[in-house]
Amino acid sequence: MHTFVWLDHLPGSSLQGGIELANRLYWNVKWHEHEASWCVYSGEDLVYKSDSQDAAEAFIYGLGLAYAVLPEDSFDHLEYWVKRWVAPEDITQEERVQFGDHTPSP
Predict the structure, then answer these.
(1) Dihedral, CA atoms, 93, 97, 100, 103, nearest 10 degrees?
(2) 14 CB contacts (<8 Å, ≥6 apart)?
(3) Prediction pTM value
């Protein structure tokens, strides 16, 4: 048994909100039970495996919380820089203006 004391800091006060926050940074988190183990994936890569659902939930909570406690403008800036690195085609014109990016759109 565990208590997520700061769960209310995650979007929607839920683990799913933490997953959605991480996925804005292209983690592509998915998790499920498989052969009596709880598995957390980033895309197709296994990043955490446990025989305990509680432990897998704690892992997801920590991942989401790491981003949720950032000030909103800091998270937005981080999201922009991750997009530049991972998926520059996803950068909107509004983001280019907001963050002073003068490179041409793809």
Answers:
(1) 30
(2) 7
(3) 0.87
